[in-house]
Amino acid sequence: MRGQRLHPPELKIKLDSSLAIVNMVLLLIFFFLTTGSLIGAREFQVRLPETEDLPLDLLPKPLLIVGADGAMVLDGGPVVPGTLNARLIDDPVLHVLTDRDTRAFDLLDILAAERLVAVEIQLVTIHRTSEDAP
Length: 134
Known about the structure:
The protein is α/β, with parallel strands linked by helices. It has a domain at 56-123: 2-Layer Sandwich (Nucleotidyltransferase, domain 5). The protein contains three helices and five strands. It has helices spanning 18-38, 84-87, 104-113; strands at 63-66, 72-74, 77-79, 93-98, 120-123. β2 (72-74) and β3 (77-79) form a beta hairpin. It is rod-shaped and about 120 Å long. The chain crosses the membrane at residues 20-41.
């Protein structure tokens, strides 16, 4: 037995991948946090309406009246489609009055086609009593 050399037993090393998985998860979280803040999401803020009794001649200005056929009138003058943004260059708030039977999607399509920039839109309604009704 003298001539035989004893080899040390082979050590089996198991790699622990849990640290790598934790690092990957943290990197993914940081990635989504940073890229999520870079994407500019359009924010729509909705404020609840306030009811006021105003005579028709005291309605807020500028007042855009949108007819049932989509025709627009701004403060008494007709509006050619595509020119509303230029006419509102000095007005940050646009008051919109439309027919009560107009669908909201139709009104949104009309206003989206005008490509308004930095304009707050407020809907105006007219309260009719039973004696005002046609």
